[in-house]
Structure to design on (546 residues):
């Protein structure tokens, strides 16, 4: 008779190892110390952070850059509550990750247990699946299931709560249900040839087709897929990943392009507010739609909204569907329309090259990005991370869309960029990583500079300090009038000194001619760096009002 036993925490860690994971973004806490202990006997690297939301944002960046679920691990109750907030960004950007949260002991449930919280219910609206493990023997199966769901169909975050008594308990080795490799794997849903041919026939019948992709394609692999779809079909494509929708700073005069389309093909792009719900006059009332989506509910939603204007709708995963369209493409759409859309998307006002600050001691945001542009473009492996807010919209509009550009995304939450920069360097230690964010946003996770210093993650953050939550200030001006601005002021803070105090490199920039040197010194420092640029408080660029 065997006497060997296995502890729950070891089952979890070994299962992650079996799935090929070796990096976990985490922050310690009572409920998960057994998992930390179990990690010692594995090859897992624990990247521990200064806030649980940062751990989730790091797992999110891991998911976006590698295509494989990032793993975040936090303690129960307040740790989980902090972490859960960050799921919304990953959900909006269709980023695969697994959040493992410690949890009150099952024996204390309903009795006022330590940090007892209905964690699975809390995470559920922001996750593809969310549940609490119920037995020691099946902990590995739970972890495998979480990984499988995160990477299947439309990728996204999954939450699993792990009660601490299950993690601490040991059971006979023969009782453990170790998951087979297949338990981790997603089963892709293809677009069959007949469906691909039907879609291509509808495209061939259109004068001005436009293919829109969802955030899951905003990766190197996704951008490559779209470039190949364009090459095979000459249908213009765009990725819709901004909460600003038609006014996405990256997409130039997108509103003019889509208004002219007579066919919109949604390839894994949710029919939602970013499309202005497909209503006229933003989109022609006679425009037809093709909807290819991993989720039947989203195909149904588009049909509910657009009725018989939906010429074709079907369930298929985005990447295999794109490959099927490329494989079956026989004819090309019109060259003139393709060129017209390309020109509209890259359209920028003629005044921009000469825009400059009118305020001594402050730069215009465009001057910042003009200086940064050659550095971002210099290396094909550059990771560019743009947060939300007005300053960062200038960055999204002026900086090149490198294959590994990441933005805060459809969820519309600010604050993820500094943790994402840390994770980018964990993924690839030699990648040049640039971050662009406003001064208000900087405050969300500035403590992660300590993580970056501790773990040697030398990214360059460019902060636009206008001493204001400017995006919201501009909403007040627009909606309530210039004499009704209230509660959006900040101090012109020396964030560069904060970063220097945390062990990083800090630069203060107050004029355009100081910037090139500051960028060079930041890059040469080899440290996590903050270039704190004093800027004029300017609204986000609007190429043309949509
Ligand atoms: C989590 C979260 N809180 C609040 C907001 C609302 N919000 C959007 S942009 C913004 C202002 C950002 O200020 P800052 O980082 O200084 O950039 P700026 O607009 O000033 O350039 C705020 C408060 C949000 N989108 N997400
Ligand atoms: Mg600001």
């Amino acid at each position: 008779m065997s006497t060997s036993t296995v502890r729950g925490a070891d089952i979890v860690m070994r299962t992650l190892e079996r799935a090929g994971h070796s990096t976990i973004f985490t922050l310690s806490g009572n409920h998960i110390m057994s998992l930390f202990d179990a990690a010692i006997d594995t090859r897992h690297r624990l990247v521990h952070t200064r806030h649980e939301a940062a751990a989730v944002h790091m797992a999110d960046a891991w998911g976006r850059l590698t295509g494989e679920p990032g793993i975040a691990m936090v303690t129960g109750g307040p740790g989980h509550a902090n972490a859960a907030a960050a799921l919304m960004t990953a959900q909006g950007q269709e980023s695969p990750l697994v959040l493992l949260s410690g949890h009150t002991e099952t024996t204390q449930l309903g009795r006022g247990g330590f940090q007892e919280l209905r964690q699975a219910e809390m995470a559920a609206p922001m996750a593809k699946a969310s549940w609490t493990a119920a037995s020691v023997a099946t902990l590995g199966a739970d972890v495998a299931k979480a990984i499988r769901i995160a990477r299947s169909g439309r990728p996204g975050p999954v939450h699993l709560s792990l009660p601490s008594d299950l993690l601490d308990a040991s059971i006979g080795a023969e009782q453990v249900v170790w998951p087979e490799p297949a338990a981790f794997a997603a089963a892709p849903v293809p677009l069959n040839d007949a469906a691909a041919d039907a879609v291509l026939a509808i495209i061939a019948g259109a004068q001005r087709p436009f293919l829109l992709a969802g955030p899951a394609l905003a990766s190197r692999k996704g951008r490559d897929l779209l470039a190949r779809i364009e090459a095979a079909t000459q249908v213009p494509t765009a990725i819709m990943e901004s909460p600003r929708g038609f006014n996405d700073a990256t997409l130039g005069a997108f509103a003019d392009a889509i208004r002219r389309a007579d066919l919109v093909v949604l390839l894994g792009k949710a029919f939602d507010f970013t499309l202005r719900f497909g209503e006229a006059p933003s989109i022609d009332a006679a425009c037809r739609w093709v909807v290819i989506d991993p989720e039947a509910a989203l195909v149904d939603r588009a049909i509910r909204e657009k009725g018989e204007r939906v010429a074709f709708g079907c369930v298929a995963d985005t990447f295999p569907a794109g490959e099927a369209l490329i494989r079956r493409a026989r004819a090309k759409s019109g060259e003139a329309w393709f060129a017209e859309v390309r020109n509209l998307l890259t359209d920028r006002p003629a005044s921009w090259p000469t825009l400059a600050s009118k305020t001594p001691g402050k730069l215009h945001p465009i001057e910042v990005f003009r200086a940064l542009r050659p550095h971002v473009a210099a290396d094909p492996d550059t990771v560019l991370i743009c947060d939300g807010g007005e300053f960062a919209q200038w960055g999204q509009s002026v900086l090149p869309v490198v294959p590994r550009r990441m933005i805060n995304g459809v969820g519309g939450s600010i604050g993820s960029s500094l943790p994402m920069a840390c994770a980018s360097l964990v993924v690839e230690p030699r990648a040049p990583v640039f971050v662009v964010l406003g001064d208000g946003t900087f405050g969300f996770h500035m403590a992660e500079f300590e993580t970056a210093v501790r773990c040697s993650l030398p990214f360059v953050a460019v902060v636009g300090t206008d001493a204001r939550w400017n995006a919201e200030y501009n909403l007040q001006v627009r909606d309530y009038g210039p004499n009704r601005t209230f509660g959006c002021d900040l101090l012109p803070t020396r964030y560069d000194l904060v970063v220097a105090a945390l062990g990083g490199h800090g630069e203060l920039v107050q004029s355009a001619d100081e910037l090139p040197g500051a960028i060079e010194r930041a890059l040469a420092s080899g440290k996590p760096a903050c270039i704190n640029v004093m800027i004029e408080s300017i609204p986000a660029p609007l190429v043309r009002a949509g």
User: Anything to note?
Assistant: The CA atoms of residues 441 and 531 lie 14 Å apart. The mean pLDDT is 97.
